[in-house]
Amino acid sequence: MMNTGGNLATLNSVHLRIINALVVYLTECEFDESQLNIGNVALAMDYVYQAHPRFWRDFSPTFVADAVVRVFPDWKSAAGKASRRLKRLLVGVKEVLELHAFDEANAELIGSLPVYERPTDRTSASEWICSEYRRKGQMAELARAQRDGKRCGDGALDILACLENAKAGKPFERIGTTVARWYRESVLKQVSGRQ
Q1: Residue 156, C-beta contacts closer than 8 angstroms, at least 6 positions apart
Q2: Which of 113, 110, 103, 18 is CA-nearest to residue 67?
Q3: What is the largest CA-CA distance in the chain?
Q4: Dihedral sign of CA atoms 70, 75, 76, 82 in order
Q5: What is the pLDDT of residue 84?
Q6: Which three-class secondary structure state does DSSP give residue 82?
Q7: Which of 1, 3, 56, 88 has the most CB atoms around its CB within 10 Å?
Q8: Is 133 helix (H, G, I), strand (E, B) or coil?
Q9: For residues 75 and 82, is the Cβ–Cβ distance under 8 A?
Q10: 82 in the Ramachandran plot: left (φ > 0), alpha (ψ -120 to 50) or beta?
Q11: How far is it, in rounded angstroms, from Cα 180 to Cα 174?
């Protein structure tokens, strides 16, 4: 199925809003170049998070690259390509996005179960996810799910809670989003106190 021009325009509009929100976060938090690291960029990514099913899987590292060069034009080389600093940063961004996208895909798997069959805690969710990948013969996904003490269950349940609460019209934020908003608000209070 082909994208129609309207769908493509809507998608581009959504991406542009994400890039603009990243720029606003980096600017309002007054990050300077020395503070531009994967931790602070991950906060910016969490800040712009929107609870819809493919947010992380559709989020491109180029969104971050575009936002960074808008705030820090020197991070683009003279040839108009990403500088080495930006390329190094984007390696970390890609890793964060892969982790979030994996959590999102696992949330989708758990969400496909009837509510009464769903795992309800980190451990049972991790075990269920691993058993599903094992059953399907998806060994690469199984290995990823088993990394980091099987944290995949926690990540999947977190995203699933966001998606289901958003669908029900209930306010709910991921912990990372809450921290990112708190940090921004703290900086803005400091800035207003200086004026």
Answers
A1: 103, 106, 107, 109, 110, 125, 129
A2: 18
A3: 61
A4: negative
A5: 83
A6: strand
A7: 56
A8: helix
A9: yes
A10: beta
A11: 10
CB-based burial label for 78 (10 Å; 0-12, 13-18, 19+):
exposed
Contact 126, 152 (CB under 8 A): yes
Question: What pLDDT does 149 receive?
Answer: 75
Mean confidence (pLDDT) of the chain: 89
At position 104, the amino acid (one-letter code) is E
CA distance 158 to 125: 11
Give the Cα separation of 93 and 96 in Å (integer): 5
Q: What is the chain's length?
A: 195
pLDDT per position as a tens digit, 85-105? 888 999 999 999 999 999 999
| Residue 173 tokens, joined | 């934020």
Residue with tokens 């180029």: 62
Q: What is the pLDDT of residues 43-81, one digit of tens each?
A: 999 999 999 889 999 999 999 999 999 999 888 765 566
Residue 4: what pLDDT?
42
Residue 177 has pLDDT above 50, yes or no: yes
Task: Tally Cβ neighbours within 10 Å of residue 25.
Answer: 25
**Is the pLDDT confidence value at 19 over 80?**
yes
DSSP codes joined into one string, 102-170 = HHHHHHHHHHTS-GGGS--SHHHHHHHHHHHHHHHT-HHHHHHHHHHHHTHHHHHHHHHHHHHHHHTT-
User: In a 10 Å sphere around its CB, with 0-12 CB exposed, 13-18 middle and 19+ buried, how is residue 12 labelled?
Assistant: exposed
